[in-house]
Design goal:
Oligomer: single chain
Strand content: 25-35%
Bound molecules: zinc ion
Low-confidence stretches: none
CATH superfamily: Cytidine Deaminase, domain 2
CATH class: Alpha Beta
CATH topology: Cytidine Deaminase, domain 2
CATH architecture: 3-Layer(aba) Sandwich
Mean pLDDT: 88
Helix content: 25-40%
Order of helices and strands: HHEEEHEHEE
Largest sheet: 6 strands, mixed
Structural class: alpha+beta
Shape: globular
């Protein structure tokens, strides 16, 4: 499976939100898909698909996320992740908040800057709030 959704040049000219919107348009909205966007100075430098889920769920394994991040071939200093809620609303679920907290914990342990977790629905994009 090709994990490359957009090429580097395409990403380089887009904001984080622009990359998210483009990926969602390309993927379609019929099931949940999770992505990683490595960033440098808060600009996307690429995108990797982490996992494809079902209509209303997607599983993100920490080892997959950090494996993709560490193997990423370009320079990065932070990353964001996002997943889209198929054809549902953007509102993060309890498990979305738990996943975000877990990523945050791993990033603290690994001394990596985490730019946050976005969820996307038919009503737009939101960032998962953290305590
Ligand atoms: Zn979700």
């Amino acid at each position: 499976m090709c994990r490359r959704v957009l090429c580097y040049m395409e990403c380089g000219s887009l904001t984080i939100e622009g990359v998210i919107r483009k990926a969602v348009v390309e993927e379609g909205m019929n099931r949940e898909v999770a992505y990683l966007i490595p960033t440098l100075h808060d600009r996307p430098v690429g995108i990797r698909k982490l996992s494809t889920g079902k209509r209303s769920s997607v599983i993100v394994e920490m080892y997959v996320l950090f494996n993709e991040l560490f193997r990423f071939e370009r320079e990065w200093d932070s990353f964001v992740m996002f997943h889209h809620h198929g054809d549902m609303m953007k509102q993060p679920s309890e498990s979305d908040r738990a996943l975000t907290a877990r990523i945050r914990e791993c990033c603290i342990a690994l001394n990596i800057r985490f730019g946050g977790h976005y969820t996307i629905g038919i009503d737009g994009i939101t960032k998962v709030k953290e305590d």
